[in-house]
Amino acid sequence: MVVPYYVVINAVAFFMYGADKYFAKNDMWRISEKALLGVAAVGGAFGAFAGMEIFRHKTKHAKFKLLVPVFMAAHLALLGYLFLG
């Protein structure tokens, strides 16, 4: 059950970052930074990081540059604990 969760939450994060970049370029309603970081915190950090790099979105914001990798490390540690004991 853990693997499907991570697949879905990372896909959601990736598409949220892409959508927010699209919204920003087209002067539309935006996804809040709190929501973008929140999805990364609950397991979507890998998708968030990929979205940041591929869409070149939020890459200059210090809190994103710091927190997304921190969330990635935390989830790698959690996954290591769950799968490797």
Topology diagram in text:
Layout: H1 2-25, H2 33-55, H3 62-84
Structural account:
- This protein is mainly alpha-helical and about 80 residues long.
- It has one domain (about 1-85).
- The chain has 3 helices and no strands.
- The chain has helices at about 1-25, 35-55, 60-85.
- Helix 2 crosses helix 3.
- The chain starts with a helix and ends with a helix.
- The model has no long low-confidence stretch (mean pLDDT about 95).
Quick rundown:
With 85 residues, the chain is mostly helical. It contains 3 helices and no strands.
Give a quick set of tags describing it.
mainly alpha; 82% helix; 85 residues; 3 helices; single chain
Order of helices and strands: HHH
| Main structural class | mainly alpha
Cα(first) to Cα(last) distance is 17 Å
Taking all Cα atoms into account, the compactness measure Rg is 13 Å
Oligomer: single chain
Q: Strand tally, please? A: 0
User: Proportion of β residues?
Assistant: under 5%
Shape: elongated
Poorly predicted runs: none
Largest sheet: none
Number of domains: 1
Average per-residue pLDDT, rounded, comes to 97
User: How many H/I helices?
Assistant: 3
Helical residue percent band:
over 70%
